[in-house]
Amino acid sequence: MNRKKRQPKVVVIGGGTGLPVILRGLRDKDVDITAIVTVADDGGSSGILRNYINVVPPGDIRNVLAALSDWPDLALDVFQYRFDSSDKFLAGHAIGNLVIAALSEMKSGIFEAVQALTSMMDIHGHVYPVANEPLVLNAEFKDGSELSGESEITAAHKEIKRVWVTPSDNTDGHEPAAVDEVIDSILNADQIVIGPGSLFTSILPNLMIRNVGKAVCETAAEVVYICNIMTQKGETDNMTDADHVRILNRHLGHNFVNTILVNTEPVPADYMDYQRWNELSRPVKHDFQGLRDQDVRVVSTSFLKLKDNGAFHDSEKVVNELMNRLQQSHD
């Protein structure tokens, strides 16, 4: 009897611009993809929509849906289209953000809205907002001060000690929690991929939801962290790759990162346009002993793609390494 081989389950957790890059590379592989996306963004069109109609900020979710969709190019271009500033009423809004906001009202929540869009947009795999309500990111800085809101935290340009999330509507004092589908996907995964993305504002907001962090620590899957190539102003200035992992582990109270992908290809100093990519600071320094001290397996090679005078992860190289890791963990 011919039995169809089970596709390995790969769960990618994050937000921001790094997540769609990895998902685009994974969609053509023989894997069952689940993307778990942050809901704590408060900038741009997402922030405006959130302030007006109290929906989960849709920007990161929109980009993930577009990355995994089989829609023709024109349909995706319309979904991603952002009105320019001369369109006063709709200035800055992406059409996809408005569609997600509308469906959130129609379906009484972001989770069911995204499931409807998953079907409508011919999505490869699953897209799960990490929570079914908008969350606020909070930070305590090393000087003892505190701030709320992702954009405020980043703009403060102060050293962050720790972050946590609270519901934006916290009148009843409830604790945010992920829905069962999110937790089940983590516990049943063959590989968990975290990053690349802003450490404090794209990655940790997901892991700071108590049942998500618990599941990531308890899963039997290999947890792979894709370390950023560049440090980020106001978030990770002067941090090494080992510092990134140390902060992740400290926030969850457990050494849960099993493997790290580290780029060792130098970024040409004269190539970077730091005015255009003004959130970037300098290449992340390496501390391989610091990583080994945390029982992390280090995969160090060139993951670099130079594009538009910026330094990015090469989707193909990263995904090929993720597939190698999957193969090795199942041999």
From TrEMBL:
Pfam families: CofD (PF01933). Signal peptide: none annotated. The keyword Transport does not apply. InterPro entries: CofD, CofD-like_dom_sf, Gluconeogen_factor. GO terms for biological process: regulation of cell shape. GO terms for cellular component: cytoplasm. It is found in: Cytoplasm. One of its GO terms (molecular function) is LPPG:FO 2-phospho-L-lactate transferase activity. Keywords: Cytoplasm. Coiled coil: none annotated. NCBIfam families: CofD_related. Required for morphogenesis under gluconeogenic growth conditions. Belongs to the gluconeogenesis factor family. This is Putative gluconeogenesis factor. It comes from Paucilactobacillus suebicus DSM 5007 = KCTC 3549. The lineage of its organism: Bacteria, Bacillati, Bacillota, Bacilli, Lactobacillales.
